[in-house]
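Protocol step 6 of 9: fold each sequence in the batch and record its structure tokens directly after the sequence line. For illustration, a two-sequence batch is reproduced in full.

Sequence one:
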Amino acid sequence: MRILGQKPNTKRPVIVAAATALFASRGVDATSMRDVADAAGVREAAIYRHFRGKEEMAQEIFTSWYEWYGQQVQEIAQRADPLPERLSTLVHLEFAAAREHPQEFLYFCENEARFLRRLRRDVPRVRQELIKMIRKAQARGVVRSGNAGLLADMLSGALCTVAISAIRRKDSLALESEKLAAESCWQMIKPNK
């Protein structure tokens, strides 16, 4: 991810990690720049060398994760693989992100509504990519008919909820159940026969 790899010989990665963990556990509004500085082991002034303020920092952290995730979802959605295989890949992406970066995942998921509207236009929107994938599959009769936005929201919401719940409960086994999750996602959107 871009933000985590930037300026590796500075305190920026430490500040970003501390801020992300605090934003995930307390929320952006309940976290002060002093809290971030204390958690990062730096002076508050050091943060301002990298960010103009807390809101800019919170937006930049969100944007870096969302941009990465949106590009991954776009790539999966545009594949020519059968839809159940793409769903399996989507589940793997979601669960791997939750396993490998739990604090970042929580922050990313729980702040989407707050920061999404401020993203650059060129950043793929996850919901729109899922809607496009579902509509194409509906046109081929591979997905049940109906509101593609609702189906995309159900699919995304189910995966996000499972991952968030597993992180909060410290239930790593739930995030290893990719096959069951992918089958359940397929059951949610496959055509009724």
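Sequence two, same batch, same settings:
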Amino acid sequence: MRIFVPIGPVAAAEQPDSLSEGGAIYMQSCAACHGAEGRGNGPVAAALLKSPADLTRLSLQHRGRFPREDVVAVVSGERNVLEHGTREMPVWSQHFAPTTSGATGIAAVYARRRLDLLTGFLESIQRTSDEPTPSPAP
């Protein structure tokens, strides 16, 4: 018996819980640095050498278009971001990185699903105007 698991982008209209699932993944993997609202002011931000990016401004920085491919490349490790550390970190390799071996192929499907959910959530928190970003917490 074959089981079909979609691995492409997940439309929120098709999956009503997608945004809440993506939000939970975000809170677990990203909020410590980027903040609960994605504005770069998480509780760890003050301890970092470089301030985390305001993830709510990604569309504004790309002429109103959410840069899905760029976000996927950063989160999956296809594009390095020095502040994210190495790809050997469990938060990256176990949750979002592509895998190539047989037994881990199923894990790759789930990793892609988490990546799609997280990316969909990030797209949902984009600002439509250039309002100021609150300063990171001291």
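Proceed to step 7 once all outputs are recorded. Observation for sequence two: The chain has one domain: 18-124.
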